[in-house]
Amino acid sequence: MKSDRNVGGQTAPPMLLAVPLLAALAIGCGASGAPATRVSLVARDIAYEPTRLVATVGEPVEIAMQNVGAIDHDLNVDGIAVRDVQARDATTGGHGHPAKMPALHVAASPGKTATVRFVPTAAGTFEVWCSVAGHREAGMVAVLEVREARS
Ligand SMILES: [Cu+2]
Hints:
The structure is a single chain. By secondary structure, the chain is mostly beta strands. The protein has one domain (35-147): Cupredoxins -  blue copper proteins (Immunoglobulin-like), CATH 2.60.40. Helices cover 10% and strands 40% of the residues. The chain is built from 1 helix and 10 strands. The strands form 2 sheets. The protein has a 5-stranded mixed beta sheet with strand order 2-1-4-8-6, with no helix packed on it. Strand 1 (37-44) and strand 2 form a beta hairpin. Bound molecules: copper (II) ion.
């Protein structure tokens, strides 16, 4: 058997390898790919923990809600000014949304973690609440404080 090995072809020109790598980096550097501050929120039956979350105007934040309870829970925030909202790993299929869809919404079934990522665009203090029937009334609420960026 003759060898197919071509000694001269073993070293690919570095340029050919560099081009796809640079393209991949460029895609990864889009606005929505900026690193986000991760905030953990635990959802229990029936409460959030902690009950105070903090974010900063203009800085991407990612709230990861871990449902450690035995029933579905979700997270809703009304009236907050945000951009680039992305919700993922939402795990409940048929839960009822609030009549008016909030600015931020994500749901997690028992044992799951769901994440909502966003960039707040104005300061303020907002209520985080669970829309599952009776939960808000039972005290399943928290506060999201959006602070001005430090100058
Ligand atoms: Cu709930």
